[in-house]
Amino acid sequence: MNTESSFAEAQSSRDKIKNDLKTVLSDMDEYLRATASQTGEKIGVIRERLQEHMHKAKDRLADTREAVVDKTKEAAKATDEYVHDNPWRAVGIAAGIGLIIGMLIGRR
Question: Would you tell me how many other CB atoms lie within 10 Å of the CB of residue 88?
Answer without folding.
Answer: 7
